Amino acid sequence: MSSISRVRLAAAAATTVLAALSLTACNDGTGAQDEGRATGSSSSSAAPSATTASGSPAPSTAADPSAATGSAAATGSPGTGPAGGVAAPTARTPVSKAPAAAGKPVTCEGSTTKTVAAPLTRPVNHMLLTVTNTGSKTCFLYGYPAVRFGEAQSVPPVIEDSQPQAVVTLAPGESGYASVNLSATDGSGGNGFTAKSLTVYFQGRSGSGSVGTGAHPPLPAKGVHVDDSLKVTYWQQSMDDAVNW
Q1: How far apart are alpha carbons 217 and 201 in whole angstroms?
Q2: What's the pLDDT band for 164 if we cut at 50, 70, 90?
Q3: Nearest-CA neighbor of 126 among 176, 175, 184?
């Protein structure tokens, strides 16, 4: 090989080396290219993997009404249930009104009761008054019956010893009792007469005067004999207590 050929070959080789060095400098701003950094940059810019680090499917980022609901529940707004989830709406049962019978008790009187007057054979010269609650509410029988036979202008006194320990209380359908001593058994009573009509008035809680309407229980067709010894018992819860006087 001639000397000229050797010079040209050496020049070509030098040119190739310079070109390679120049290319390497362009690939890295300050020197040689870092293949590890290039690989990391490439992986960080790639699209997110479809699975999480644990290998389970990653949650979808697509618009989903159910996902939006779950997100809102996680805020723990008032009314949320356990673990921040929205409590399921519970059906509310309408509050039913209490029946009329469960209302406040009232005073027993003629319009809400039925009164029966029945003469007794024992004790003699006695009459039993039976008052039954025909209303829809519990009622109280206060005090004693204010009875008026015929056209009498006054009501007879009460037997004080017959006063019960508690006010007689009648639920709908229940009955209370009082007895009436019509006349003296030994004939000692004065101003006797035969009464053919009877009105029963009901006392209020205060015990003064009557309340509501009176009752008009029928008497036997022949009437009943009454005199100045006429008196009544307090209202009683049982019939036995009423006829003991």
Answers
A1: 11
A2: very high
A3: 184
Pairing type for strands 231-232 and 175-181 reads antiparallel
Closest CA to 203 of 153, 158, 150, 138: 158
Q: Three-state SS across the chain?
A: CCHHHHHHHHHHHHHHHHHHHHHHHHHCCCCCCCHHHHHHHHHHCCCCCCECCCCCECCCCCCCHHHHHHHHHCCCCCCECHHHCECCCCCCCCCCCCCHHHCCCEECCHHHEEEEEEEECCCCCEEEEEEEECCCCCEEEEEEEEEEECCCCCCCCECHHHCCCCCEEECCCCEEEEEEECCCCCCCCCCCEEECCEEEEEECCCCCCEEEEEECCCCCCCCEEECCCCEECCCECCHHHHHCC
pTM exceeds 0.70, yes or no: no
Q: How far apart are CA 184 and CA 234, in angstroms?
A: 19
* Backbone dihedral angles phi then psi of residue 60, each to the nearest 5 degrees: -75, 145
CA distances from 93 to 90, 96, 115, 199 (A): 9, 9, 42, 49
CB 138 within 8 A of CB 169: yes
Q: Rounded to an integer, what distance in angstroms lies between the CA atom of residue 126 and that of residue 231?
A: 10
User: What is the C-alpha separation between 88 and 120, in angstroms, rounded?
Assistant: 70
- Per this entry, what is the length of the chain? 245
Q: Please name the residue that has the structure tokens 């809680």.
A: 205
- Per-residue pLDDT of 41-56, as tens digits, reads 444 444 444 444 444 4
